[in-house]
Amino acid sequence: MQGPRDRLAQTALDAALGVKGVAGFAAPPGLSSLGPLFAGIDVVAEGRERYGLTLHLAAHLVPLLPLADEVRDAVAAAARHDGLAGELGRVDVRFEALEAER
Amino acid sequence: MILLLRALARVVAVLLPAALALAGLAVAIASVGSGDGFSLPWLAELIGLPSLERTVGDWLASLEADGPVAVVAALCGAGAVLLGLALLAGVLVPRRERLVTLHSGGEGEIAARRRALGHVGEALVKDAGNVTHARVKVRPKRRRGGRLRVTAHRTRPADPDSVRSAATAALEPLTEKLPLRAKVRTRRGERGARVQ
Prior knowledge:
The complex is a heterodimer of chains A (102) and B (196). Chain A has 102 residues and is α+β, with helices and mostly antiparallel strands.
């Protein structure tokens, strides 16, 4: 049984991977707050039943700011769809690696 | 430099408490005993404190008086203070941030790793004409954005100014869309280096 933290992370992971231009998740050095299952996503409590996300992404060589906005929109839409809109707080996007599209 | 001081501070932070703990343990164990056997005088004899006192006793006496030895001692004291300050700097001075903040707002922050931006910059500059290879170092600013320090190695017959202009233009996808500024310098490439 997943808690809201894990469900939010899973939702964000699926949503971000569906955005064109995202090559994948790239875990930064150190331990993820959620363990290896969600490597590349950190979830931090921002208050009661509200969680901030940090998405560590690998991206293709595309304009980064529009891509980050698109990822954020996709995560927000997916959270709404899964009934987690109230739990979603800030979404930080960090581009850990940039790579040419294959 | 700070990285070196940080490493030194970490080593000292491990070794010094370990040495103090061992010394304290030895003194504590020796304190249990008494008499001629296992005791504090025995421990002092074991590590040669009496002979050390005979060796450095005269030097310590001259240290108390004015003279060249006192000057050496003062210099050593000043050196110890400087070493202490350097170790403190190694612990307290923050590391250079590895992320460049590209945008920050209430909805969240967008940032990119310096190395990733550097690789993109290098790929862009390599596509400029007459560049054999390029190195890009990214230095983040404190709040937002950063600077790209670009070194473009040019082919030997190429004009430096035109290569600099071409490299600056090639970086526009980064410098126009993102809060990054580029400073480009060119170097003459090695003999035989070719555009890849």
